[in-house]
Amino acid sequence: MSDAGDARRFVPRPRSDIDRRSRTDAQNVRDELLRILHRCESVIEAGRESFAEGAPHDDVASMVVMNDDLVWAAVTVRIPAILLGPLSEH
Asked: For the chain, what is the total number of helices (H) and then of strands (E)?
């Protein structure tokens, strides 16, 4: 059972600010793209000679692409080029 005091305590939340949410979503995507780009850079810095089975950066990449030369090209050339496009727009 409730009384009039309970009704006065209820305050509805304001509706979500769509513009703020869109900006937050865009920033989250940009942040994730930057994280991926940093991972690619760490692979590039380690060099092709260390990109072998069992190496940490090879393990993650090889889960997606099962060919060493394709993985190396994707992580060192293709993915950074793809990511730099959207990142340079902001």
From this structure: 5, 0
